[in-house]
Design goal:
- By secondary structure, the chain is of the alpha+beta class.
- It has one domain: Multidrug-efflux Transporter Regulator, Chain: A, Domain 2, CATH 1.10.1660.
- The strands form two sheets. The protein has a two-stranded antiparallel ribbon. The protein has a two-stranded antiparallel ribbon with strand order 3-4.
- The termini are far apart.
């Protein structure tokens, strides 16, 4: 369930993976590669993702799927 902080919705890693259809390992790899420039974290230091982040991740997924077509 997304959490609202200062009027913005943020998603946890599990929710982000479910909504974008990628694995946690893929998400971690893309973060290490710098796909998302700005990372948000909660008070525990856990990553949080915005709707814009989800759109970028979905776009990357679609880009990869298109490049695999014969």
């Amino acid at each position: 369930m997304p959490v609202k902080i200062n009027g913005n919705l943020y998603y946890a890693t599990v929710e982000t993976c479910e909504k974008t259809g990628i694995s946690r390992a893929t998400l971690s790899r893309w973060l290490k590669q710098g796909l998302l420039k700005e990372l948000h974290k909660d008070r525990r230091g856990w990553r949080l993702f915005t709707e814009d982040d989800l759109k970028k991740l979905k776009a990357e997924t679609e880009r990869i799927e298109v490049s695999r077509l014969p």
